[in-house]
Amino acid sequence: MNIFQDNLDRLASRHQDLATAAKPAAGGVLTVEPARTGVPSARRSGRWIHSAYDPLREAQTWADTHAPACRSGEMVVVAGVGLLYHVEALRRKLAPDVSLAVLIPNLDEFHDALAARPLEAWSEAILWLPGAPAEIAATLTKIGRPLRCLSYAPAVAWDTDFHRALEEALRRDMSRQAGGQLTIALVGPIYGGSLPIARYVKRALETLGHTVQWIDHSVHAASYDAMGTLKDQRNRQMMQGRMAEVLSQWTLATLAESPPDLVLSMAQAPMTLPVLEHLRKKKFLTAMWFVENYRHLTYWQQLASGYEFWFVFQQGACLDAFRQAGARQVSYLPMAADPDLHCPMSITDEDRHRFGSDVSFVGAGYANRRRLFPSLLRQPWSFKLWGNEWDGADELRSVLQLNGARIDTATCMKVFNATTINVNLHSTTGVGLDPQADFVNPRTFELAACGAFQLVDHRSELHRFFTEQEMVSFKDFGDVPGLVHRWLNDSAARQAMADAARARVLSEHTYVHRMRELLGHIGLSQPDRVGSVLRGERQQESLLNRCTDDRPLEALLRDCPSGQRIELKDVAARIRSKGSTATLKREELMVLMLDEYRSETRDLL
Description:
The protein is an alpha/beta fold. The chain contains 27 helices and 18 strands. Helix 14 (317-324) links the parallel strand 12 (309-312) and strand 13. Helix 18 (442-449) packs across helix 21 (491-508). The protein is globular and about 80 Å long.
């Protein structure tokens, strides 16, 4: 009996191209040996992919865990091949109207699976997905079914780059197709650098057509600052901590008034772990975009388990640290620009004189900037320094503008546009360039969106966003004076580079792009909640298509505005608008009864 050939013949009946590709594959990725129960098991690089004792029982346990979440009409996509015991168990457990697809990142591993054991008839109901991540994502998108992605952890560890690329491609495809309207509660901080970013996020979400419940805690900043004037550190910390707890409870009470589809917090939002755990218990979806250096601000460690989704602008060690702290899902989401605010401006002669210079920097007085910027003084070009927290930097006092006052976004834009060369030096607590340069700050994107020329310190991720024809970076601050001299004397090349960087931001790096990606990720992870809304399944047209045999319900839906999302409360509100003396049909009374039940049983606090 030739197991491999029999499996190839069975595979070829439906997937001829895959059978042809798998036949000459070298194999040898899996080490196949008998389990205690006698059936084949396998190891890869010395680690067991399946149980060394009973792979069948292990696979059944995995399938029993995941099958209840799979819904009718979905396409369930499994990552992890091994010997496919888990796929077989899941296929037998799922209803026939749930489709099942398996990713094949490595044909050699698949060859080993085909040679190890008979696949039998169940394998004919599988959509096998070999190829590049972008191609697979396009295939899944064209199918048009809701996607539910599952991972068989022991088998995916060796193909992490493939699976990461596929997830990114699926996210992009979902974001491009998304047309449904979510209600998103956006929780802002009391103060700080993430506050303007929260406002950019709000505009981006509204641009995408979503409804934003803006919970703006910056209105309490004066009270919070007043507590900061207490001289006793213990009292100061206690009072500010209590205020944060009160604002967290205020957020919870606000959410209870009108529950959203998603609660999205920005870094430093006053949300406590008990409130986040309560929201989780009440089935709220929560997410945090942590737009801070995780090494410098570490409060995330206490909140890691509280949010369902974390988004961070650092990779590698950052992602690992969040997972080790208890974060369930953590993903990379870099910074961006808001082209409605960060844009080229016409500068008057008066403003150019006031805000312009040959070279400038905008930002706070971190230690490395205090140490490095004096080398920009006493040069044959003008230099201006803008921003706060420069107390004690006496050597820089002659170039510090507005006596070191914090400047607003409008002033920043004037400085960016009026300056010939903007220096963009990332902050660090050391005295030189950031030795762990693993993120790109918002200023990089904002300057580029303004069409302003910049010199930025080299970042490990910079190449992901800009080419060398779009951005000039330096690895040694001692190179900056020479770079300034070179680019000051080449206005045409300077303008060409600035224009190219702006075009790149507009095409790929706005907050609209980032919010599409964020919602695409959550939609993939929650296909029957956020995903269904993003796919437009709550829109009037989709609902009408699903109730063609229910004339009374169809009539109720047709009374609602076309092109809008419709929920039970919306239908009930239209019925109530008829007035207390209206004679209602049976189905209208039933809708009102269901809505009353929903309101009475909604216990969110």
